[in-house]
Design a protein that fits this description.
The relative contact order is 0.08. The protein folds into three domains: 220 residues, no CATH class; 123 residues, Orthogonal Bundle (Cyclin A, domain 1); 84 residues. By secondary structure, it is mostly helical. It is built from 22 helices and no strands. Keywords: GTPase activation. GO terms for molecular function: GTPase activator activity. Pfam families: RabGAP-TBC.
Length: 496
């Protein structure tokens, strides 16, 4: 049955299970295989993923695996029983009535549950329709049950479109590795594999993989991009001259560390403003100049974990690397996904630059990123992401409005009156260096900083780009002073 529904390349290999997992003395470095795009050659991806996600302790005795899975399967069954149970003991007949509109009427929950199931079922029926496996009624019912159970256990998020695609990937891997022909391995190994990849408990096993995925920062990404609180903000007056200075609240402002925005928006801005700017400043500036909103394309990439951008086989290899790097770093979220997004952006950077020479807006960039070009070997992207992750990335400084206010009141802010027409710096900066070029460079930097800070002070709207530019110039001035001024030089900020 499984061979008709799943290509042979994805079926479990009992022989490799016995060699690399059953025999504890000859286990492979599955993390390295995942980063090299070779985990699929083990043909035991379902077990490997559960190891990476912490569901199966590794390396560890097989008895521990079996006992832990047994506990999880029993827990899942109790959750289902509790959610499906309707407590009707000692209920007032006037309340427990299908026609009653009372809020605590159990019939209300019944109708709400049916609506939720219908919503889930519509999406499940559209999941991977091109694959025969997902046309099976058994598989569709299993997916509806898993998504419904998770949604009922997490009412603050409930079910959102896109979760069905994440579950579909897990379902494909789990179903493909149900053991069938075990005649070529030892009896003990076959017994263990039958328990680990049990058809009877497949729903429970996949549920816990899905729940673990949601717990690693994915569930909160399904919240709306624009929160209700942000929608309550005062709208700009578009009929005054100040309208030109108003920036779209989601464009060109780093919100990766703000708490009053949604999780998905913070994550998108972290990838764009923090990681991309540190890794490829030229490309970052290009996207900023074109007012490309990062959430327009990163929202789908992050929520669906790239499953919509690549075919199923490539997605499995990317998830191998995502899970393996989480396992290695023991992080709170799947941060390697962020670096894969950066690799994808950089991968098409030359195309974007050439294409946008003829385009005056961001539509060309978005068309390219929302319809990602085919990649011959996605392991190229994994290699790029690994390089970016191991690179010592310095987070971009986020300057607050209070820091701007402190800068504008600093003694340095008033030093411009001491600069002459030739921009010669005050004597207090020292002349022991004997270099007029150094003095001119320092004076020019001070003049530039003062100009930018005064420009910021005159702005009625907080302009984060100008603030960051001012901080860069002031840091350059600080570098001049620390490296080139003699010890006898007077600190200008301490002079009265």
């Amino acid at each position: 049955m499984a061979e008709e529904l799943v290509p042979n390349d994805f079926l479990v290999s009992p022989e490799l299970f016995e060699e690399y997992f059953f025999r504890q003395d000859s286990h492979a470095n599955i993390q390295q295989l995942a980063n090299e795009g070779k985990l699929g050659t083990l043909k035991n991806r379902f077990i490997s993923w559960r190891i990476f996600l912490g569901i199966l302790p590794y390396p560890g005795p097989l008895d521990v695996w079996i006992n832990h899975l047994t506990e999880l399967r029993e827990k899942y069954q109790k959750m289902i029983d509790e959610q499906r149970k309707v407590k009707i003991d000692h209920l007032d007949p006037l309340i427990f009535n299908p026609l009653s509109q009372v809020s605590d009427n159990p019939w209300n929950n019944f109708h709400e549950d049916n609506e939720l199931k219908q919503k889930i079922r519509l999406d499940v029926e559209r999941t991977f329709q091109e694959r025969p496996l997902f046309l099976l009624n058994e598989v569709q019912e299993m997916m509806v049950s898993i998504l419904f159970t998770w949604a009922k256990g997490n009412p603050e998020i409930s079910y959102k479109q896109g979760m069905n695609e994440l579950l579909g990937i897990l379902m494909f891997v789990g179903y493909a590795e149900i053991p069938e022909n075990l005649s070529r391995i030892s009896k003990k190994a076959s017994e263990v594999l039958n328990v680990l990849n049990s058809r009877e408990y497949l729903e429970a096993d996949i549920y816990w993989c899905f729940a673990r995925l949601m717990d690693l920062g994915i569930s909160e990404l399904f919240n709306p991009v624009v929160t209700h609180q942000s929608m309550q903000r005062k709208k700009p007056d578009l009929f005054t001259w100040n309208a030109e200075k108003m920036h779209n609240d989601l464009v060109n402002q780093d919100k990766s560390q703000e708490q009053n925005v949604s999780s998905i928006l913070r994550r998108c801005h972290k990838v764009h403003h923090q990681l991309l700017q540190s890794i490829d400043r030229e490309l970052f500036n290009h996207l900023e100049a074109k007012k490309t909103e990062p959430q327009m394309y990163l929202q789908r990439w992050l929520r669906c974990m790239l499953s919509r951008e690549f075919n199923l086989a490539d997605t499995l290899e990317l998830w191998d690397a995502i899970f393996a790097n989480y396992y290695a770093e023991s992080e709170k979220e799947l941060s390697f996904l962020d670096f894969l997004c950066i690799a994808m952006i950089v991968f098409v950077r030359e195309f974007c630059k050439r294409y946008l020479v003829l385009q005056s807006d961001q539509s060309g960039i978005l068309r390219r990123l929302l319809k990602y070009p085919p990649v011959e070997d996605v392991n190229i992207l994994v290699g790029m992401a690994l390089k970016y992750k191991t690179k010592n990335i310095t987070p971009v400084k986020i300057v607050t409005k209070q820091e701007v206010s402190n800068l504008s009141s600093s003694p340095l802010f008033g030093q411009k009156k001491n600069l002459g027409a030739d921009k010669t710096p005050p004597r207090m900066f020292g002349t022991s260096q004997g270099s007029s070029g150094w003095n001119n460079n320092l004076a020019g930097s001070i003049d530039e900083a003062i100009s930018v800070i005064r420009d910021i002070a005159n702005e009625k709207v907080y302009n984060e780009n100008k603030v960051n530019r001012a901080m860069e110039v002031i840091n350059r001035i600080k570098s001049f002073i620390e490296k080139d001024v003699s010890p006898k030089t007077v600190d200008p900020l301490s002079r009265k």
